[in-house]
Amino acid sequence: MHVRHLVALAALALACSRPPPVTAPPPRPARCADVDPARQCAAVADSPVAWHCAGEGCCPAGAADGAVSLDYVAVSEPVGDWSHMLSGLWYDRARGTWLALQDNAPAVVWMRPDDGTFTRWTGGPTGIALAPHGSVEALTGLVGGALLVGDEDDLDARPPGPHLFRTSAADAGVSSLAGQRIEVPAHLRRACDNSGFEAASAAPGGRYLVAAVERALTGDEPGVVRVLVTDLATGSQRERAYRVGPDCWCDGVATSVGVAELVALSSTHALVLERAWRRDRGSCARIFLTDLAGGDDVTALEHLDASVRVAPKRLVLDLATLPRDVGLTAAVGQTHPILGNYEGMALGPCMADGRRAVVLVTDDNDDSVQRLHLPPQPRRVLTLGARGL
Question: Whose CB among 150, 196, 219, 264 lies 3.0–4.6 Å from 203's, allowing a Cys bridge?
Answer without folding.
Answer: 264
